[in-house]
Amino acid sequence: MGKNIKKSIVTRVRVAFLCVCLFAGAIFYKVVRIQYLEGTKWRQIAKESRIIYQPVYATRGNIFSDNESILATSLPFYRVAFDATICDDKVFNKGIDSLAFLLSRFYKDKSPEGYRRKIKNARAEKRRYLRLHPMQINYQEKKMMASWPIFRAGKNKGGVIFEKVDKRFRPFGSLAQRTIGRMTEDGNGSGLEFTYNRQLAGKDGEALFERMAGGNKPIYDGTEIKPLPGYDIKTTIDINLQDVAENALYKALVLNNAQYGCVILMEVKTGAIKAIANLGKAGEGVYVENYNYAVGDHGRTEPGSTFKLASMMALFEDTDLTPEDTVDTGHGRQVFGGVSMGEAHGGGFGKISISQVFEKSSNVGTAKLIETHFGKNPEKYIAYLQQFGIDKPLGFQMHGEAKPYIRKTTDRGWSRSTLSRMAIGYGLKISPLQTLAFYNAVANNGIKVKPMIVKEIRKADAVVDSFETETLGRICSEETAKQLRSIMEAVVEKGTGKQVKNLNYKVAGKTGTSWKTKNGKYIKDYSTSFAGYFPADNPKYSCIIIIDTPKKGRIYGGDVAAPVFRELADKAYVRDLAIHKPFAALITPDKRVLPPVKAGQQEELTLICNRIGISSHPVADQEWIKADSQAHSYAWKPVPLQVGRVPDVSGMTLRDALFLLGNQGLKVKKVGLGRVQKQSLEPGSPIQKGSTIILTLS
């Protein structure tokens, strides 16, 4: 019994061993067959599975300011990889230690021995792609690395691979950040980058890449399709005014602990936006550009008193009233449509002119005028707003423009008090840009132009598309525009906008303060504003300022928003010499007294005398002269110049003296300031080589 069991076990073991041997033999046969009989076939399949087509991304176009300064560009960065199979042994062995040391010192993540081992292992394994470090390097660093041992032999002999990666860069940092915008990898974005992505992006190319451990290595076999770089965009932004706008806005937001603010500065005739700034509160004293309050839905609010200009325009267009006509505003409070309305600035103005209604920003006066003339036919008032283009988007050149909301008599929310509230800027919502376009039309004699922020789209130096000023039509008569300009000037001269008044140029504008809403109810938070243009007598720029929810006790547009307008207007005026008035001469020259002309070039001195109306008697064929005054005129005497002789430079400016003495080879030392009073070397004396002359100035 025991022998039978032992025999059975031995038999089973032998059978199992035989099966293992047969299985091992089958595996060996299969390996040999795949390796030698079918090797070529499988190697080709493996190679084909590793070869893929991948896009080669185009270089994104630039965004420029109005003077060709770069607002956004794509800079080349690189990742460094290495093909360990290319470099020959002599070059590799000679340079590996130095290369490892340099890599270690540059990346600071491994020791020289660590990099040496990493590269040598890749070479032993015949790896054709080894990414040395994930960090991206700039162009200057790439140039430096290209000179290192092994790498200096280049891609084909040294094996170094510099993989180009474009990164968006803004030379002016956060300046106009929200206006420039961005693009995300999922195709979303904001600002100009998003709006003009199709033009900026260009057209991607395509090339073969080989899949390898650590990444994909490009294969340049001649089949690659080169990418087409994107077009450039030239904007209307003035970087200097943009900087002023952002700084002035930031200071006002911090000073008033406000929630957010925006600024738009625009050319009256062209509609070209020269500055547009948006800042929102991100923390105590911290403001960033996250939303485009100036253009988009986040800034679409009830405008408040700045909208009174539209009410006045409708009034002057529909009636024969003038700014001198009067209205009784009573004691500062009146009921309209069953709802009591009071004045924002005190009250009890009594009987005042329409111009005073506007300059004092009287709610009661404005509402009473509109109720009197449009109360029985509010549709007519709304038709005027539509005529002014306030109910329609402007078709701005940037994605995300807010759609205005103007309440109509057929709307569910219309009531008996709606018209009077619309008259003073409630019951409707428009964006700051739409308000500014309306004010700009008044400055432009009643002609409305579309705001513009992109001037050209270019391919290198060739203009692919250009954008000219687009007129949206006349929205009021010239007479109405003239009347509105006069009452806007009165606001600054003696009304709620006196904070922007100055002596150098005139400003016209309107302050605004509106209640904020929360959950459909008005709360004690305010949005303050100032909209206007300058110089008032020949408008060049229009501007709007919004400061939302100030918290430091100041709630009126004249106190909060107007100072920002003043700072930006002052800077714009100083920079634009074309709009300056000529200054009257502080001193009237007395032509009976000759000015102290001494000596110099005849052409210059004669020109000066001619300009100030003094007679002079020229000397023929003489460049340098001295003055000899004779009563009320000058007679010029020649200054003799001889080679090798010291010239007479007394009475000359230092510039002229240096020119003459330097041409004679003299070294010059000066004492004092002014014209030459004395010279140490006698005029006409011989010049010794290397001589120095001392000039005493007075």
UniProtKB/TrEMBL annotation:
Keyword Hydrolase belongs to the record: yes
GO cellular component terms, semicolon-separated: plasma membrane
Chief location bin: membrane
Highest taxon listed in the record's lineage: Bacteria
Any one GO BP annotation for this protein: cell wall organization
Keyword Hydrolase in annotation: yes
Transmembrane segments: 12-32
Annotated ranges, domain PASTA: 637-698
GO molecular function annotation: carboxypeptidase activity; penicillin binding
Keywords recorded for this protein, A-Z: Carboxypeptidase, Hydrolase, Membrane, Protease, Transmembrane, Transmembrane helix
Subcellular localization, as worded in the UniProt entry: Membrane
Pfam families: PASTA, PBP_dimer, Transpeptidase
Cross-referenced InterPro entries: Beta-lactam/transpept, Beta-lactam/transpept-like, PASTA_dom, PBP_dimer, PBP_dimer_sf, PCN-bd_Tpept
Protein name: Transpeptidase family protein
Organism: Adhaeribacter swui
Lineage: Bacteria, Pseudomonadati, Bacteroidota, Cytophagia, Cytophagales
